[in-house]
Design a protein that fits this description.
Elements lengths: L3 E7 L9 E6 L7 E11 L1 H8 L12 E2 L3 E8 L12 E5 L12 E5 L3 E3 L6 H4 L3 H14 L7 E4 L5 H12 L3 E6 L4 H7 L3 E4 L12 E6 L6 H5 L3 E9 L6 H10 L2 E3 L7 H12 L7 E6 L3 H9 L6 E5 L4
Parallel strand pairs: 9-10, 9-12, 10-11, 12-13, 13-14, 15-16
Antiparallel strand pairs: 1-2, 1-4, 3-5, 3-7, 3-16, 5-6, 6-8
The structure holds NADP nicotinamide-adenine-dinucleotide phosphate.
Length: about 325
Amino acid sequence: MTSTMRAMVITENGGPDVLLPREIPTPTRLGSEVLVRVLAAGVNPFDVEAREGRAGSCGSPELPAVLGCDFSGVVVESPYALHPLKPGHEVYGVASVPRSAGSYAEFVSVPALSVARKPGTLSHVEAAGVPLAALTAWGLVVDVAKAHEGQRILIHAGAGGVGHFAVQFAAYFGAHVVTTASARNASWLRQLGAAQVVDHTVGAFEDSVAPVDVALDLVGDTDTALRTVHLVRPGGTLVAVSAPPTSVLQDAADSAGVRLTGYAVAPDATCLAVIARLIDSGDVGVYVDDVYDLEDAADAHRTLARGHTRGKLVLKIADE
Ligand SMILES: NC(=O)c1ccc[n+]([C@@H]2O[C@H](COP(=O)([O-])OP(=O)(O)OC[C@H]3O[C@@H](n4cnc5c(N)ncnc54)[C@H](OP(=O)(O)O)[C@@H]3O)[C@@H](O)[C@H]2O)c1
């Protein structure tokens, strides 16, 4: 290990060009943290929001900052000799941004409870696309929706990072999955388990969807959730994932007898281990749309912000 490392750093909030390559001190492992050599880092909408300084209740990092939640890499130092995560183990997980430095760097030090053994069937580039999106999808589909046979679930933005995992988890647990996406993603989403794909670019989605038990809004524009309230049966649940529910949305949900909730993902190594097993058994997959060099992180942010990524974007940091 060297005393300094390559990283993409922001010293101010702003557009993608504030992401700059820098040589900075390698982080030191503290307490129960695991020090990981990062081989690939996933890119998430939260990274874009944190770069712009509008991460809301998630909190924007203090500057200068290294962004990036998702990583896949190799353990360099573990908390103690008999710890189950040992030097040399291939792992994936979630960095503690905004509390500490992120994964757009050659090394990251993260709490052991945010790290799990990486799915053995995936490359590091593929594995780096999994953690935050799959944990969010799991929390929504399993913990909140409690997906099961006979349940009808509507997943808006099924083709995105979170959405493509949510479609697969909901289908895996037997739910009838309805999802919105553009036409180019329809046959792929059916392969992932969607029973119905509604093209959100043609007409109003609400004209094509029969009542559902649960709806997940992963779009987060001004009206998708509001237009979805009346698609949820009375007593059903609507989850506003992208932004906290507004008072207008709450009033509409109350009048329709629909339970409305927000959602906040939390790192969870146990859940990452379960997801790794589902991936290794072939029941769930990750789709990586494009791979960028670490130094091209700004281009990845520009692409993600256009809002039409299929699955995930990943930064490659070192050869496997
Ligand atoms: N609360 C939390 O804890 C939490 C955690 C993670 C993410 N999030 C939020 O969840 C949202 C989704 O995250 P993500 O990583 O999945 O984003 P993403 O990968 O950037 O989503 C891109 C996808 O959105 C689809 N899309 C865009 N506009 C659409 C529309 N009007 N209707 C249907 N689909 C549309 C696109 O599909 P087409 O190209 O086919 O249109 C594209 O595949 C973001 O707002 C993110 O901030 C929240």
